């Protein structure tokens, strides 16, 4: 089995890491968190000759989900995730975008909600789904055990953690999600996050100031 590859496309004024995960042999892939700038995302997909099978969302904030509806229309694929607790966020994307002066982002309802313990696949590559509330009530992460890789959205960053001062945020709940769902994945698991450079869980366990004492 070939190793999955990842391409990151910074989108929206928030420079959110829209991620394309794909198998370099079969060219099958998924788009994770298309927050906006859909023409840019489509250009990369076409340039690489990728066969996108689905759109996966980690959570419902506008910079992660605001382009999902238009990308679905362009590709004819399903929107999968996040957990249903993020429906209020997904329904308010257009209102939130207007407050930031951002055009073109659309509210959206996924074709399928996800729950803790669900499994998704990109061809033969299996991902486990974990519900990790705190940054957003319905936040989920995607974990590929075989390749020791995870997409953590806005739960854990390189040197920081997700904001909890937004609607539905809960700092104690976020730390609980990190302690019980993320750290047990193992120190050798590398991850992509929603903003900025990725890292490894072990590096964050040792040096991230927000994780000391967990």
Please give a quick description of this structure.
With 214 residues, this protein is an alpha+beta fold. It is built from seven helices and 13 strands.
Descriptive key words:
alpha+beta; 214 residues; 5-stranded mixed sheet; 7 helices; globular; Metallo-beta-lactamase, Chain A
Sheet with the most strands, sense and barrel status: 6 strands, mixed
Supply the number of helical segments: 7
Strand order of the largest sheet: 6-7-8-9-12-13
Spell the H/E element sequence. Answer: EEEHEHHEHHEEEEEEHEEH
Distance between the termini: 36 Å
Level of helix content? 25-40%
Q: List low-pLDDT spans.
A: none
CATH class identity: Alpha Beta
Shape: globular
Total count of strands: 13
Radius of gyration: 16 Å
- CATH homologous superfamily identity: Ribonuclease Z/Hydroxyacylglutathione hydrolase-like
Question: Any overview of this molecule?
Answer:
The protein is α+β, with helices and mostly antiparallel strands. It has one domain (5-211): Ribonuclease Z/Hydroxyacylglutathione hydrolase-like (Metallo-beta-lactamase, Chain A, 4-Layer Sandwich), CATH 3.60.15.10. The protein is 26% helix and 26% strand. It is built from 7 helices and 13 strands. The strands form 3 sheets. Strands 6-7-8-9-12-13 form a 6-stranded mixed beta sheet. The chain has a 5-stranded mixed beta sheet with strand order 1-2-3-4-5, with helices on one face. A two-stranded antiparallel sheet has the order 10-11. The longest helix has 12 residues, at 171-182. The chain is globular and about 45 Å long. The termini are far apart. 47% of the residues are buried. The mean pLDDT is 97.
């Amino acid at each position: 089995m070939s190793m999955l590859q990842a391409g990151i496309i910074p989108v929206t004024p928030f420079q959110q890491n829209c991620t394309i995960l794909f198998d370099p042999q079969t060219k099958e892939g998924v788009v994770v968190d298309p927050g906006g700038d859909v023409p840019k995302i489509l250009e990369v997909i076409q340039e690489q000759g990728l066969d996108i099978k689905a759109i996966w969302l980690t959570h419902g904030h506008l910079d992660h989900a605001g382009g999902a509806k238009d990308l679905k229309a362009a590709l004819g694929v399903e929107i999968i995730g996040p957990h249903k607790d993020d429906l209020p966020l997904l329904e308010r994307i257009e209102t939130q975008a207007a407050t930031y002066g951002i055009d073109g982002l659309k509210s959206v309802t996924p074709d399928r909600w996800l729950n803790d313990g669900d499994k998704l696949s990109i061809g033969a590559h299996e991902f486990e789904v974990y519900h990790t509330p705190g940054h957003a009530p319905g936040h989920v992460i995607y974990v590929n055990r075989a390749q020791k890789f995870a997409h953590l959205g806005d739960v854990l960053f390189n040197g920081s953690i997700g904001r909890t001062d937004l609607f539905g945020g809960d700092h104690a709940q976020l730390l609980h999600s990190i302690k019980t769902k993320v750290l047990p994945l193992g120190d050798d698991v590398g991850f992509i996050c929603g903003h900025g450079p990725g890292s490894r869980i072990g590096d964050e366990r040792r040096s991230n100031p927000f994780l000391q004492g967990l």
